[in-house]
Structure formats: C-alpha cells, structure tokens
C-alpha cells in the first residue's frame, strides 16, 4: 500500500510551529509584516492571495494588502516596491505572479530588496541557493523537501528525476535535491525517451503543467512520486500532472492533488516570513 503524503496535515504542523515562534518573537517585541501585492484580478491569483492573507492571520503575521488595478503602470508598481523596500516596518514583499503583459516580471522581481524576497525569486536568492549560501528558498521546492523529510523518506544517494525546468519550481528543486545529496536529472520538453528516464527515478517530481501526463509507464516500482501540477479535469474536478489512479498501486509514496504539494507552498512562505526577522 502506498503512503499517501498528507500535505494538508504536514503544512498544518509547520504553521502551528511557526505560530508558536511568532508568539515568542512578539514577547520580545518583534512583529512580522508581509506586504502582498496583486495587480489585476485574475481569479486564481485572488484565491492564492486570499489564502496567503489567511495564513498570515492564523500565524500572527501582519499582512498589508495592495490590490492594484490591471491598468497599473510598471513605473507605479516599481515605486511601490521601492517604498516598501525602504519601509523598515515591512519584513517581506510578495508580488503575486503572473503580472499583466505590459509589466516586466523580471524587472519587478529584481527590484525587491533580496532581504525581503520571501518568495525566493530574486536572482540573488536563486544564486545563493546555487552556490550553497544562505538566502530565501523558493517556497514550492522547499515545501517538497519538507514533505519528504517529515514523511521519513530519505533523499541522500537517491536517483531524483524532475520533469520541468521553470525558475520557480524545476530549477530550484534540482538545486535543493542536490543539496540533500540526491543524484539529480532535470527533464524537459526536448528530453528524449522521457518515460525511460523517469523510470530510473527513486523520487520522481513532476512539474510539467499537463493534466495526468505521468502514467505507470513513467514510474519505477516502489518510486516516490511528487505531483506539483494542479488542473481542473473535464468533470471540473481537481487533478495533477500525474495520473494518480494509474500509478498509485505501483508507488511507495505519492502526493495527492489537492492536499499534497499545494498547501506546502504557503506554509513555506510563512516560514520565509519568520526567517526574515531572524
Ligand atoms: N504565482 C504562482 N505561484 C506563485 C508563488 O509562489 N508566488 C508568487 N508571488 N506568485 C505565484
């Protein structure tokens, strides 16, 4: 029987640990403030931003909401970020992505002070990770490491295959698994014999962005499968990048969708907010 990795429960544990830490910090006069910026009203972004605010409230972090219209100019957004960079009462700055097309996302991320980059997207944060120095970790990959560790799944020496090379998930995931002493392969749209490569994996991490793409032909017997995808299927039900029903009898552990990786991203964002004052 496969272990169904309960991301909801593990994220709740992490949030409770953080809540306690935040309460302790408060007794020594330290308050944490996160600025959350959303441009436009993409419904998915609104849900994510709402969940981030709720998590802040639960843990005891003050959140400042900046809900800017779709028509906001790049200049105005950058000015707001610069103002928040200079505001010593603000510890973390989060700009919800994606941004409207007329705004240069890379420039926006680069403008955030790396010491407040709780998303871990700034080139300095990514660079620090790549050379083993301290910096904010990208939340989804950091959450996946926590899922593995808190499920007692050892990483050291394991064959880890990652499908997807995005800056937010695939690349930082590879660096984190390498830091944990896994042997890491990154696959992408031009990878030849993808199923064969994936079948080598002790730990298969899937962030390809295609619903139910990974079937049992991609999975070794007893592998651990981590599903980063989230989609709505033809019946309006949530599903991941992995065909869960097809692979579940073959794996030793798997994350469900929903309730696997998803809740971990926010828990790790909260963790980064706490780290920003330590
Ligand atoms: N859009 C999708 N995922 C994320 C995330 O983790 N952080 C931000 N800022 N935007 C996102």
UniProtKB/TrEMBL annotation:
UniProt binding sites for NADP(+): 164-166, 230
Any one GO MF annotation of this record: methylenetetrahydrofolate dehydrogenase (NADP+) activity
A Pfam family reported for this protein in Swiss-Prot or TrEMBL: THF_DHG_CYH_C
UniProt KW keywords: Amino-acid biosynthesis, Histidine biosynthesis, Hydrolase, Methionine biosynthesis, Multifunctional enzyme, NADP, One-carbon metabolism, Oxidoreductase, Purine biosynthesis
Record flagged with keyword GTP-binding: no
Domain annotation Tetrahydrofolate dehydrogenase/cyclohydrolase catalytic: ranges: 5-119
Domain Tetrahydrofolate dehydrogenase/cyclohydrolase NAD(P)-binding: 138-276
The EC number(s) this enzyme carries: 1.5.1.5, 3.5.4.9
CDD domains: NAD_bind_m-THF_DH_Cyclohyd (cd01080)
PROSITE patterns assigned to the protein according to its UniProt record, in alphabetical order: THF_DHG_CYH_1, THF_DHG_CYH_2
Catalytic activities: (6R)-5,10-methenyltetrahydrofolate + H2O = (6R)-10-formyltetrahydrofolate + H(+); (6R)-5,10-methylene-5,6,7,8-tetrahydrofolate + NADP(+) = (6R)-5,10-methenyltetrahydrofolate + NADPH
GO cellular component entries: cytosol
Signal sequence residues: none
BP GO annotations: L-histidine biosynthetic process; methionine biosynthetic process; purine nucleotide biosynthetic process; tetrahydrofolate interconversion
Database matches in SUPFAM superfamilies: Aminoacid dehydrogenase-like, N-terminal domain (SSF53223), NAD(P)-binding Rossmann-fold domains (SSF51735)
Keyword flag Transmembrane helix: no
Pathway involvement of the protein, from the record: One-carbon metabolism; tetrahydrofolate interconversion
Gene3D superfamilies: Leucine Dehydrogenase, chain A, domain 1, NAD(P)-binding Rossmann-like Domain
HAMAP family xrefs: THF_DHG_CYH
NCBIfam families associated with the record: PRK10792.1, PRK14186.1
PANTHER family assigned: C-1-TETRAHYDROFOLATE SYNTHASE, CYTOPLASMIC, C-1-TETRAHYDROFOLATE SYNTHASE, CYTOPLASMIC-RELATED
Role description: Catalyzes the oxidation of 5,10-methylenetetrahydrofolate to 5,10-methenyltetrahydrofolate and then the hydrolysis of 5,10-methenyltetrahydrofolate to 10-formyltetrahydrofolate.
Family of this protein: Belongs to the tetrahydrofolate dehydrogenase/cyclohydrolase family.
Assembly: Homodimer.
Protein name (record): Bifunctional protein FolD
Originating organism: Variimorphobacter saccharofermentans
Lineage: Bacteria, Bacillati, Bacillota, Clostridia, Lachnospirales
Gene: folD
């Amino acid at each position: 029987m496969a272990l169904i990795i309960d991301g909801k429960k593990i994220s709740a544990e992490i949030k409770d640990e953080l809540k306690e830490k935040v309460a302790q910090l408060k007794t020594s006069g330290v308050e944490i403030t996160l600025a959350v910026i959303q441009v436009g009203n993409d419904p998915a972004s609104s849900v994510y931003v709402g969940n981030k605010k709720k998590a802040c409230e639960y843990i005891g972090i003050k959140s400042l909401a900046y809900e800017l219209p779709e028509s906001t100019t790049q200049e105005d957004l950058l000015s707001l970020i610069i103002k928040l960079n200079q505001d010593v009462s603000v510890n973390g700055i989060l700009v919800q992505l994606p941004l409207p097309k007329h705004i240069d996302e890379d420039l926006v991320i680069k403008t955030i002070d790396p010491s407040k980059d709780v998303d871990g997207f700034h080139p300095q944060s990514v660079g620090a990770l790549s050379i083993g120095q301290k910096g904010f970790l990208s939340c989804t990959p950091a959450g996946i490491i926590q899922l593995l560790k808190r499920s007692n799944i050892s990483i050291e020496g394991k064959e880890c295959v990652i499908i997807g090379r995005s800056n937010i998930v695939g690349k930082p995931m590879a660096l984190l698994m390498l830091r944990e002493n896994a042997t890491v392969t990154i696959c992408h749209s031009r990878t030849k014999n993808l199923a064969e490569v994936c079948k080598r994996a002790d730990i298969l991490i899937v962030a390809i962005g295609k619903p139910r793409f990974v079937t049992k032909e991609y999975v070794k017997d007893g592998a651990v499968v981590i599903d980063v995808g989230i989609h709505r299927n033809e019946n309006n039900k949530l599903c991941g990048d992995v065909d869960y029903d097809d692979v579940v009898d073959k794996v030793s552990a798997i994350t469900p969708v929903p309730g696997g990786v998803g809740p971990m991203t926010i828990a790790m964002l909260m963790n980064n907010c706490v780290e920003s004052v330590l």
